[in-house]
Design brief:
Radius of gyration: 18 Å
Number of helices: 15
Oligomer: single chain
Largest sheet: none
Shape: globular
Distance between the termini: 17 Å
CATH architecture: Up-down Bundle
CATH topology: Na+/H+ antiporter like fold
CATH class: Mainly Alpha
Amino acid sequence: MEVSILLMQQIAQLFIVLLMGYVVVKAGLLKASDSKVLSVVFVYLVMPCVVLNAFQINDTPQIRTGLLYSMGIAVGMHVVFLVLNAIFKKPLRLDVVEQVNIIYSNAAALVIPLVQALLGEEYVVYSCAFVIVQLILLWTHASACLQEGAKLEWKKILTNVNLIAIVAGALLYLLHISLSSPIVSTLSSVGAMIGPMGMLLAGMAIAEVPLKKVFCTPRNYLPVALRLIVVPIIVLLLLRVFHASGWIADGKAILMTVYLSAITPSCATVTSMAQLYNRDTAHSSALYVLSTLLSIMTMPLMIGLFDMLV
């Protein structure tokens, strides 16, 4: 019950921010296209701060074991996501925007605040493992998918500020280098904008599309159902079959932080990337909004199943 209440509160807060973005455009104060400027700030400033801050932790044997465990589980989950996408995309005729919205979740915006409230600050690093794995794939696989038909510039991808932030953060962690308090505080403050800014961008983008089209388009419910129900259930069954929670001490709690990341709605960054690469931003935003709204019901359900089966 506590998890369900926290989930609903967190999602409700972010959804109110989405409505703010929607109202700003509808009131004529901004245009939906103006969100591209914010997308640049979100992708190239806020996300790197989240990554760098995630690596500023104490390196103890217990944390190292838990981090390797959560990272391994996160990699395994993404492999499952990619395999399921390969299976589903042709028979279900999923376009590229739908595919990336199914594969990538809004873990950073929803799970980190939830883990802080539910399990405590010390468990945040394990949820960050999922975010780091996802970031790497976002700026390689998702970027390649969204630039479909164009020549992929690997040099630009590999020199992307987000991947550089991951490498820099990992080196700081491995070399036991702690940044000064003012820098860490700044990274934390800027990174805290990830949830609100992502929802604000979605609200601005969706403002140019009639809400009737979002909620009354039957096609939208297919990728959303795959993201919120089908994929999480398959992942949960695999976790049970392999007894993943028993691999290390405190495995169930750590595993829950990773599983929470896998059951969140569509990724906010995907909508920002669709904007940057001139894809169907309105469709991506519609999937984002619909999945976020429906996740109020599906996430507590999936966590309930997790408690029962794992």
